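Forwarding these from the shared drive since the link keeps breaking.
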Amino acid sequence: MEFGWTEEQDALRARLKAFLAANLPDDWETTASLSPGSQAVTDFSKVFCPKLAEEGLLASHWPREHGGNGATAWDHFVIGEVLWEAGEPRGPQYYNVNWIGPTILAYGSEEQKALHLSRMLKGDVIWCQGFSEPSGGSDLGGIRTKAEKTEEDGNRYLVNGQKIWTSYARLAEFCFLVAKTGPARRDVSVFLLPMDRPGITVRPIASVVGDGDLHEVFFDDVEVFEHERLGAEGKGWEVIRYSLDYERVGIPRYALALRTLNRAVAELQDEDCFVPEAELAAATALTACEAARMLVYETVDKRMRGRPDTGSASMARYAVVCAERAVADFVLDWTPHLFTSNDAPMVATHHKRAIAAGLAAGAAEIQLNLVARDVLGLGV
């Protein structure tokens, strides 16, 4: 693998940084520390994302025939690294361009593409993800939420059940919902469900991660129609695996981790406190970040070459979780005052998001199980 960037990619990075300098307000870092699902960040995303779209930088990696620029996945990751390091001003809309949009591109009907991709490209729509449940957590095979066809109308389902840890649900217009549509463990389907349907109840879950990020969602005889199903009935596992391969490496968390680590090291150096023990701890955290970055790049490289994933996304995801924790531990051990410093609001932002890293896109333990099965062939 070539580890350097091309001149064009370096130019893209510089162009995006200049765009951020011109379009992020002076108090942006304080706003970003609230969480991607907060009302303030969500409102800002609806101003920022249309501007990003005008520059051709919101969904540049999408095909030209669907509103993108036909750019490569590498261009998408250059953009993602810069935006995540800056505190992710796309807010909850990073879902759209990172994995929901590409999944609709791969499995959606022409009607679904026309409806949903156009909204995503405008940068004014919020989605949530209906995966985890109280009884199964990250075990999607154990979900109990059902979508059952009604006898009088074969084109209509009634959804009953509950989802939990649902990010952005309070503000979302649509839910990427997984529900059982048959008796077998893998008889699941994916639905693109409008969140204003009668029978949907959303309750926030208070957490250290931040306001607006976590919710319970209850479905009581909620109508969803056949034309809102993504892919064939009972074939949702293929759709889910495709989307998760994108989601697990879609957020370059190592970018903000590296920024946070550098900020903490600079603090120690300024105070003449960067002692050998701190140097060793910083080097360990830096190594974890670089390992995560390289494993993510390997996954992107496979995608670019059309090669099967074979577990690399799960390895990359677990490495990212380890990197996040290593940096958070370093800051807690050596510069804990930065968590409450008005001069370093992004340090607290990183810590909150590091907490979520081990749960989002499938818990870290689930990733290890997938590595054991798909990479080591242990048959777990």
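-- next protein --
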Amino acid sequence: MGTKPAVWYWPVQSHTDLVFRPEVFRALCEEFDVQVNETGRQLTAEEISAHLADFDAVITGWGTPPFSAEALEKARRLRLIAHSAGSVKHLFPEDTVQRLLIPRGVVVFSANEAIALNVAESAVGLLIMASRRWPDFIFAIRHSGAWRPSGVPMNGQYLRGATIGIVGASAVGREVIRLLAPWDVKIIVYDPYLPKDAAERLGVECVGFNELFERADHVSIHAPATPETQHMVGADQLRRLRDGAVIVNTARGSIIDHDALYAEARTGRIFAALDVTDPEPLPPDSPLRRLDNVYITPHISGAGHYGYFKIGEMTLQALRDFFAGRPVKGAVDLSRLSHLA
């Protein structure tokens, strides 16, 4: 296949159009010996198993099939898996990570940081929107004609000057922290995996889980979905929120106990902005759909040209850096795969 590294590109055209600007994809194909999936469909497990051993690197994306143990066993030439999307947890069984990828030194790249740019923008936007109650004013003017509806406060603790609680200093959480820096806010963080020196570099204060809910004016959730985080935000935490507090979830719906959220939100005391729910979509009869102080969007916080095209740029850079012997930004710590989003 020549002297250039052999790269197998699995995604279909619709994915390519979504995350690669034309000039970036051209550069990818010029700089590497790329075999593009031209079938017009996702590759089958049989096709992957038959040809994976011929490549130095693979580019995967949304909708591409996971690797099988059989294919990975034979792929001794494979050195880089570049995922032009977010989570890589579904790509391979964990036993193959421990048994094959880590011992062979295979690098797995994720473009999660690019998606984090879009999600963080959404999270900050939801904090502003919900704290300022814009939907209430908009709907009142549209539906009832009330210019300044009674019952909707005209003043409050919005973003500037607030104490913002961040649950999870993930890629998204850290980008939210960065975006909030100019807003004159105090940021407190709960993340048991965040080292003290990293918190100092971020300019945040680490606090206990319940303390975060007691002290924060508003809370934004950025923890991964793991068995440990299932319903980690429950009745005890929600009742600790102060009156008028906003809780935003752009992470995973399972992190918040929806029954507990409904019980607290129905009092009208707090507000919630949910881009993720459990399940998705929420059933039509879900009581959360009927609460005026619960704003729900259909898991769209990761969308946006800016972040999506950054995925393609980061994927190309990952290949460039890896085959030049440089560290790969976005390389996944495979030893912590079970703790990742």
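Residues 112-132 form the longest helix (21 residues). The chain is about 40% helix and 15% strand.

- D.
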